């Protein structure tokens, strides 16, 4: 292996993913980080890490080709992996690597020049008889040219960044005024995200499926596809949940997609891995772009094929063939899929606030695990501060099973296991999608979220554990406002509950008699009793007098069943009164009616009694 040391020109979860692959191969790793990222985990996952940029520059240094190359050369780096986003599709970056004797772990410069630019990629598609969506012919150097081209194509249109992906710079344009407003915004957004503000327009397809084909190609002319992913569940042209393989597409359509993807890549002598993306509507196929890089959602393809795409990238860059033992892809015919996999991106976006990213400190973090679950996390742990400068994604969760429905069940279980507190997340929204029958049947299109507003009915978590911990912390430091005097000599006595047969039947008591006789007969029966009838006041007057009515339902329930079984000969148990109700509700913050229901269930054989006044002139404070 001619590669011995790899620098990852990225951050977050994808940097960690690449470091792990390098470690498994036995390669040394180098990370880069900005001052804002100094506590991010990717810095510590690398063997070496170096700050780039000034302390007041949180993001742009990740786009600084010259500085990244300098770090690589100074530290004897053999190869650079760009990850996704940032410089991953930048032909100039790949060229600078080549000129400085550094291997670029991705497609060669000529490929990036042909396919990294989406406008040029369309030209390649047309030359190879791959159907495309009609787009601008003239370069959109000004808004005036954009308007002229738009009038030729016809509205509605899609305005896109020529470089990069992730929905950055993307807008649906339905008239000229929208185009004039969106054009400079889109250019500015594309320039900030990818270092290239080139944009283009194309005809907008209203309700398609978004299907992408995973390509793997070596430097020796060998190329295969690893089947398709369905990326139709999107919000503002950003993928939310992806799954593989797709459901609802005919074998004929799938085979056409595979053939088109291979044809485009062969035309430019593609090498390394990449994704060819299409829209499919009513059997019609439209090529949209090639992403010549690793994708966020690559995990689902890895799970259904068993092929490590990041390792494949590194070995291909090291000049291995697909059929070599290091990659083990002998032929297209030997590639198969196994079951289904899907990926959810847990972010700090708030679905009830137009998905506005939330920022702050994560006060609680507990991740999921278990059979069929894979986690690809960035910098997420208890106490981490979520920065407003970076992507809002916390962790990618991938689930696999023999069926899509089974994968959805695993994913919902995993989401339920997560505990993320301190910032808003989109987990409840993701769960609503996973529970929807249209998604579980694989019948989604790009308008799925927009046309199913019930997905936005979010059930907020109860956050019980955090509330308890906050309460305990408060009273530990500040004391309990209900406790006026603290006696340090007082000792807590462990109460001894009399034994009873918890599995035995309840002996017959007065409540059974009332039910059996009815009110009138029961009253006559009571009047004819010569022995004294006793009412136990423990659950009302006794703890009102001794403990200011502060006995909780939890404590009452500890003795209720045993009392009813051991003392079924009691006439009644007094459980209620004005103060009992008032304190239960206002001071103990409990539900009085729930207390009565629980006591009745625990003491079904004994009469429950309350203190009832004909005229109540007493107020409780």
Supply database-style keywords.
single chain; 621 residues; alpha/beta; eight-stranded antiparallel beta sheet; five-stranded parallel beta sheet; 25 strands; 36% helix
Could you characterize the architecture of this molecule?
Strand 2, helix 2 and strand 3 form a beta-alpha-beta unit. The protein is elongated. It has an eight-stranded antiparallel sheet. It has 621 residues and is α/β, with parallel strands linked by helices.
SSE topology sketch:
Blueprint: E1 5-8, H1 12-25, E2 28-33, H2 41-45, E3 48-51, H3 65-74, E4 79-81, H4 91-99, E5 103-104, H5 109-116, H6 118-127, H7 143-153, E6 157-161, E7 171-173, H8 176-194, E8 199-203, E9 209-217, E10 223-235, E11 238-244, H9 251-267, E12 272-281, E13 284-291, H10 298-305, H11 309-317, E14 340-347, E15 349-350, E16 356-357, E17 360-361, E18 364-366, E19 373-377, E20 385-386, E21 393-401, H12 404-417, E22 419-421, H13 427-435, H14 437-440, H15 464-478, H16 510-517, H17 519-527, E23 535-536, H18 538-547, H19 553-566, E24 572-576, H20 578-586, H21 592-602, E25 607-610
Parallel strand pairs: 1-2, 1-4, 2-3, 4-5, 23-24, 24-25
Antiparallel strand pairs: 6-7, 6-8, 9-10, 9-12, 10-11, 11-14, 12-13, 14-21, 15-16, 17-20, 18-22, 19-21
């Amino acid at each position: 292996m001619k590669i011995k040391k790899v620098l990852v020109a990225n951050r977050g979860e994808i940097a960690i993913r690449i470091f792990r692959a390098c470690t498994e191969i036995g390669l040394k790793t180098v990370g880069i980080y900005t001052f804002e990222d100094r506590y991010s985990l990717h810095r510590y996952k690398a063997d070496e890490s170096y700050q780039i940029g000034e302390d007041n520059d949180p993001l742009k240094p990740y786009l600084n080709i010259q500085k990244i190359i300098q770090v690589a050369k100074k530290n004897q780096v053999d190869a650079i992996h760009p990850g996704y986003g940032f410089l991953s599709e930048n032909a100039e970056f790949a060229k600078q690597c080549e000129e400085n004797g550094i291997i670029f772990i991705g497609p060669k410069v000529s490929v990036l020049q042909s396919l990294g630019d989406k406008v040029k990629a369309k030209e390649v598609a047309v030359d190879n008889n791959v159907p495309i969506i009609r787009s601008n012919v003239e370069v959109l150097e000004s808004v005036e040219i954009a308007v002229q081209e738009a009038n030729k194509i016809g509205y509605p249109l899609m305005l896109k960044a020529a470089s990069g992906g992730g929905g950055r710079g993307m807008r649906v344009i339905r008239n000229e005024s929208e185009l004039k407003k969106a054009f400079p915004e889109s250019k500015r957004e594309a320039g900030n995200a990818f270092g290239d503000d080139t944009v283009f327009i194309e005809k907008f397809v209203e309700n398609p499926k978004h299907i992408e084909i995973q390509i793997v190609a070596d430097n020796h002319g060998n190329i295969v596809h690893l089947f398709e992913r369905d990326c139709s569940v999107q919000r503002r042209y950003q993928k939310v949940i992806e799954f593989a393989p797709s459901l609802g597409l005919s074998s004929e359509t799938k085979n056409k997609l595979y053939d088109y993807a291979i044809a485009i890549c062969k035309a430019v002598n593609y090498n390394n891995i990449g994704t060819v993306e299409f829209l499919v509507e009513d059997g019609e196929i439209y090529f949209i772009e090639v992403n010549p890089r690793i994708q966020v959602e690559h995990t689902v393809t890895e799970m259904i094929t068993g092929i490590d795409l990041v390792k494949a990238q590194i070995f291909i860059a090291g000049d291995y063939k697909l059929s070599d033992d290091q990659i083990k892809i002998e032929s297209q015919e030997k590639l198969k899929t196994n079951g289904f996999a899907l990926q959810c991106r847990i972010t700090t976006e708030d679905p009830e606030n137009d998905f506005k990213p939330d920022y702050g400190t994560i006060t609680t973090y507990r991740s999921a695990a278990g059979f069929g679950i894979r986690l690809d996390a960035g910098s997420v742990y208890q106490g981490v501060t979520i920065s407003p400068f970076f992507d809002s994604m916390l962790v990618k969760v991938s689930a696999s099973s023999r069926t899509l429905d089974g994968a959805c069940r695993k994913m919902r279980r995993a989401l339920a296991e997560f505990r993320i507190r301190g910032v808003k997340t989109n987990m409840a929204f993701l769960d609503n999608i996973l529970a929807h029958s249209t998604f579980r049947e694989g019948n989604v299109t790009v308008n799925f979220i927009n046309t199913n507003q019930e997905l936005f009915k979010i059930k907020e978590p109860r956050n019980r554990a955090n509330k308890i911990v906050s309460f305990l912390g408060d009273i530990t430091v500040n004391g309990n406002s209900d406790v006026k005097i603290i006696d340090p000599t007082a000792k807590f006595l462990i109460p001894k509950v009399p034994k009873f047969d918890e599995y035995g039947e309840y002996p017959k008591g007065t409540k059974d008699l009332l039910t059996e006789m009815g009110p009138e007969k029961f009253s006559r029966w009571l009047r004819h009793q010569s022995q004294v009838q006793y009412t136990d006041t423990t659950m009302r007057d006794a703890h009102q007098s001794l403990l200011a009515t502060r006995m909780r339902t939890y404590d009452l329930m500890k003795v209720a069943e045993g009392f009813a079984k051991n003392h079924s000969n009691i006439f009644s148990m007094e459980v209620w009164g004005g103060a009992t109700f008032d304190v239960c509700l206002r001071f103990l913050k409990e539900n009085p009616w729930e207390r009565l229901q629980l006591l009745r269930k625990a003491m079904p054989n004994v009469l429950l009694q309350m203190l009832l006044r004909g005229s109540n002139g007493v107020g409780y404070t």
